[in-house]
Amino acid sequence: MSKPAMQLIGLKKTIGKKEIIKGLDFNIHPGEVFGFLGPNGAGKTTTIRMMVGLMKITEGDVIIQGKSIKTEYKEAIKQVGAIVENPEMYPFMSGKKNLQHFARMIPGITNERIEEVIKLVGLEKAINEKAGRYSLGMRQRLGIAQALLHRPSILILDEPTNGLDPSGIREIRHYIRNLAEQENVAVIVSSHLLSEIELMCDRIGIIKNGEIIAINSVHDTTQQTDLKEVHIEVDPVQEAKQHLESILEKEVKVDQSKVIISVLREEIPQVIKSLVGQNYQVYGVQVHRSTLEDKFLELIGENTIE
Amino acid sequence: MSNFIRLVQNEQVKLYVRVATWVMFGILAAIILLGAVIVRFLDDGSLTEYGDNWREEIQEENQKLTQEMEEMSSDSADGGFSVEMINGSTIERNNYYLENDIKPHTYDAWQFVYENAGLASIISLFTIIVAAGIIANEFKWGTIKLLLIRPVSRLKVMAAKYVSVLLFALTMLAFLLVFSWISGAIIFGVDGMNPSIVVDRGGEFIQLNVVKETIMDYSFSMVNLVMMATFAFMISSIFRSSGMAIGLAIFLMFAGNSVVGFVSQYDWAKFILFANTDLKQYTAGREPWIEGMTMGFSISMLLVYYVVFLAASWLAFTKRDVAGH
């Protein structure tokens, strides 16, 4: 495994007497899209603020490409492009002036680079309009553009799909995958919506009440070999239930005209063959992937704010 | 260093791209023009041009004024009083011209610029507004987050903002000077390049070089301006609210002198900022606010306040977390 792009080491934040972040430890690798998932108020944005030095770290450290954000701030932050919370821009300046403004803060950004980034996020048409007139989706793109200006090796996006329409979301997903795969950028994406993160991330860390409660690889969970929930619409349903209980030797649930069974993928054809062989009328079969969603909700339970 | 200049450039761009800034320049220009028109058309005699035989002209004027005074004082007792004051002082001044053989200088662009030194308080007002917003607005817009995640220290970002405020004040001052001179030149003309005036300083008349006096007057008013702008900047940095910074700074600017007047019988009053911001109190013909105060004392007090203001701004800006709204 390559050297991590970003390391969180025992990261804690205490505000007043309350511990908001209770010791986070994880690494993010180059070329990886890491999903930072948790309900609202779980501490995602606080963690991101500490990653970029907007908030002081109470305990622990964030190491960016080998440099501590605490002691080598400038060297560390050079590697990072970020949107923290909403992509807020100067509303009275055009998109381009906004980009030029941020470009002036980092040495070595040419006008060509600015044009290149504008093209990358597809804002060519609106770039000379005032940012205050942008829709949330356009502001989101402009936010990504300013984060990419200096070719960071780590990109942090806080709720990047917020306010985007489905096609916008797909585009953003496409850029993010591209950046990770083509440019080897480590991308950290936070969200409270699992379905989005699942589609663009390689790994997901779930945070709840300031603690990481699980880190999962997305591909592990979707290609799992464990039991799947299968819904079969069948008639007569009660007899089918008994029949299935006898051959599977486990409990079968009934939901209206459907029987619900938990079986391995390989077992599904057998079950159907058996039902059809016994002259049951099968109207439909649905395999419910045991998705991250279930896992997420299972893990999260309720995010009680203490 | 070039890095810092680019930061200042950013601040200037953000300042001048907004209409509000241009409105400030517009208001200042309108006030200057209005002032010029009023002086021109409500001629109170100060615009009289004297010819080669100015000695006779002055004597004639004096006679006329004396006559007026006599008529007035016989008409009504209290109405005559103010006329007596004004005419009396004009006569005295005319006598000074005659005794010292100085040809009275015609009212011109230079004198107009000199008299506009009072408009520096308008510049103070605008500078306070700019200083109050320059940090607080970044928080209001949410852009502070994008500003502070760059490879630039917070101290540098803050310093660029502060320098930008001072630069704005200087620009406004230059505008006031140049625009006053040009509108003065158009409306009153220019009478030589080294004009002088005779002014009443504590009952005594003295002849002063207008250019030198103008520079002095404007410089003195800059002291107050810089202190109030720095104060507003500090409030902006600590409370992250421009409304509060504007309100407090403007209130103190106008109320400060009355506060000092109120408590001037106490010895500690001399440690109040506003007892020290007017360094003109130590110039010839003036009495300091509180007995025993000296120029050196005031400058030291101002420096102490200045350092405290900047240190507080720095602490608030660099040491605190940038949290949510």
From TrEMBL, chain A:
Pfam families: ABC_tran (PF00005). Residues 6-234 form the ABC transporter domain. It comes from the Bacteria. One of its GO terms (molecular function) is ATP hydrolysis activity. Coiled coil: none annotated. Keywords: ATP-binding, Nucleotide-binding, Transport. PANTHER family: ABC TRANSPORTER, ATP-BINDING PROTEIN. Belongs to the ABC transporter superfamily. This is ABC transporter ATP-binding protein. It comes from Aquibacillus koreensis.
From TrEMBL, chain B:
Keywords: Membrane, Transmembrane, Transmembrane helix. GO terms for cellular component: plasma membrane. This is ABC transporter permease. The chain crosses the membrane at residues 21-42, 117-139, 160-188, 218-239, 246-266, 295-317. It comes from Aquibacillus koreensis. One of its GO terms (molecular function) is ABC-type transporter activity. Pfam families: ABC2_membrane_2.
